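Reply to thread "Modeling small-molecule complexes from scratch"

Following up on the discussion above, here's a worked example others can learn from. I took a protein sequence and the SMILES for pyridoxal-5'-phosphate and predicted the complex. Inputs first:
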Amino acid sequence: MKTPAALNFGHSPETIEFWKRLVREALSLSTPPPLYIFSALPIAERISELDTELVSAGFQSQTQNSKPKILFRHWLSCKTQPVAPLLRWWREQGRGVEVVSEFELRAALAEGFAPENILVNGPAKHHWLPQFELCYLSVNFDSSAELAALLPLAKKLNWRCGVRILTGEEFDPETPQLPTQFGFAPDEAIAALKKLQRAKTRVETVHFHLRSNISSVATFERAIAEVAKICRAAKFSPLHLDIGGGIPVRHVLTRGGKIYDGQFGLVAFAQSLRQSVKLFPELRELWLENGRWVSAGSGVLVIKILDVKERRGVRQLICDGGRTLNALMSVWEQHALVPLAERGGAEVLTVVHGPTCMAFDQLARIPLPRSLKAGEHLLWLDAGAYHLPWETKFSHGHASVCWHDEKGIRLVRERQGFKKFWGDWK
Ligand SMILES: Cc1ncc(COP(=O)(O)O)c(C=O)c1O
């Protein structure tokens, strides 16, 4: 039987060909590797796929207008893929963006998002948000100290307020017996919702984000039921339920070979949400903030083989990009990795290394054709989520970036030259 790796992790030949065509076009623009190519098209496909299921389950999309159904709204998770042309493209669809830091808020404003289309999440924002005098922001509070500090502003600027709740379903994935550092514990959440109501703020939202790659729909169901209980205890009827992100990534395996989205079905997800929202009698909108699921498939990393070694039964390709510089995700994840040119012949166990002086710098360890030579290009697929935010300039500069949408492909960020690499020092 062929392994998922040999089957390109379930990617269709059309998808591989789509990316190869874009890579050839990018290289013909004299864009040197290492290079990321990001495309709007796979994002549009993912959104439309999820929309179809949500509409079939009985929700109404942001772009429809047929009351009294519950509307759903996708917020772009800026942290997942902070790419300026993506923000512009997304804004042109009339959609909103979710930010978690001062710089992300500034980026959203720079790309033309109106404050009412910006959702501010994340911890400790009372340390930077007060400098912005922006009316009509959506703000999900994360702690009692944050709420106390920001409440006067929330009233003055007419923010659409929400409370992030740490449900029992949210834990540190590396130490599951411990909670994450985010949101209000249930008792605190009840107190916060009461406080916001007493203060006559525009409190409208309850929010949770559990973690990435949630493997089962039942986890969402339990978290929503717990949030509904908290709302009842606080005598609060939310208008918006914000369930964060967490739909698992496709075509990607854990290092142990498990498929992330193996148990998760979009149809079941949409139907279960439709049932769960009945727990909130006055709900008008369901908010989603998916990062990985929406954008992972929208990018590839292109690297060039610089040198080849073979010893102790393994072939080693030393490339100009890799884990340390461009793909920290490869610590946890295995992605499809394909040569740009068709290469046949015998395959041998091959380790694909980046150029840094660390044994850790291993993008993949998979069988690859022995005929691969220095000078050839490799594509690491599904590089559209959390690759760019986690890139480093370890001994080398940042990669170049090309953007592709309905208008074609273009270079949107030059490869970092020495001046930028060293020029910040005073
Ligand atoms: C508040 C919040 N919303 C959404 C996301 C996106 O999560 P994912 O990429 O798992 O969908 C994150 C990721 O950390 C987050 O912290």
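What I'd highlight from this example: The first helix runs from residue 13 to 28. The first strand starts at residue 35 and ends at 39. Questions welcome below.
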